[in-house]
Design brief:
Layout lengths: L6 H11 L3 H9 L2 H13 L6 E5 L5 H9 L4 E6 L2 H14 L4 E5 L12 E7 L8 H11 E12 L5 H22 L4 H11 L4 H10 L3 E8 L4 E7 L1
Parallel strand pairs: 1-2, 1-4, 2-3, 4-5
Antiparallel strand pairs: 5-7, 6-7
Helix pairs in contact: 2-7, 3-4, 7-8
The chain binds S-adenosylmethionine.
Length: about 230
């Protein structure tokens, strides 16, 4: 089975879920995504004076954490959904954060010169692009030599038992929560399917290498249901 991941389709789907996106994230993960994000951003080692690009930034969670880690660094968040970006800008305003720039753009054709950023991050976004290998080559292009790449993604656990439980959570519990709380619960069926079809962490690490990244390392969390990947250009 294949999913339609054309940027137009994905943008319209995220436009429809943007309003309740943050609430649904908390409910679907039992708030655990907050810890995952903090652990991951620390692993990026983003520091003062550096530049970071947060791809598929959505409502800005990773971008804000990067900014918090290095307030004198420069952070740019890019997303294809205008409504998710509007949510990010509103949150920045409410939090009084001015040091993060949000831009509309497609990961497959980034509007930046070669070798621009010290760090690139993408959280829960790589499974939504039409071609992950090409996306990671494009991301590599805009990262400086020796720059770091951090990916956080929901992954199918390697253990068969855990995989069964994770599939149950995504195919039964998540759509139920979405039905009650989200305006467009259909989108959450897509999310469940996209996680189920995503490669396991060791398999995906090979795709990161194939995109030209080096020193690829991965750190499974929550029984392998989420994985943090790190790589160097
Ligand atoms: C599941 S959300 C993750 C948002 C955020 N990173 C987070 O951690 O909450 C996925 C995001 O990827 C964005 N996205 C999907 N495909 C994209 C593409 N080709 N270019 C840019 N953004 C994309 C969607 O619009 C959506 O906001």
């Amino acid at each position: 089975m294949t999913l339609d991941k054309s940027p137009e389709k994905i943008a319209s789907m995220f436009d429809q879920v943007a309003y309740r996106y943050d609430l649904l994230n908390d409910l679907m993960t039992g708030f655990s995504h907050r810890r995952t994000r903090k652990v991951a951003v620390r692993m990026s080692r983003f520091s003062e004076g550096q530049t970071a690009l947060d791809l598929a930034t959505g409502t800005g969670d990773f971008a804000f954490l990067l900014h918090k880690q290095a307030p004198k660094g420069k952070v740019v968040g890019v997303d294809i959904s205008l409504r998710m970006l509007a949510g990010a800008k509103l949150r920045a305003k409410k939090m009084g954060i001015q040091g993060v720039e949000f831009r509309h753009g497609n990961i497959m054709e980034l509007p930046f010169d070669d070798n621009t950023f010290d760090v690139a991050t993408i959280g829960y976004g790589i499974r939504n692009v039409p071609d992950a290998l090409e996306a990671m080559k494009e991301i590599r292009r805009v990262v400086k030599p020796k720059g770091r790449f951090l990916i956080v993604e929901a992954t199918p656990p390697v253990s068969r038992h855990m995989r069964f439980l994770a599939n149950f959570h995504f195919s039964k519990i998540v759509p139920l929560i979405a039905k009650v709380f989200a305006y467009n619960s259909d989108a959450y069926h897509y999310f469940a399917k996209s996680v189920e079809l995503f490669p396991t962490a060791p398999e995906f690490a090979e795709t990161i290498k194939a995109a030209g990244w080096q020193k690829v390392f991965f750190h499974p969390m929550y029984f392998g249901t989420v994985t943090v990947f790190l790589a160097v250009k």
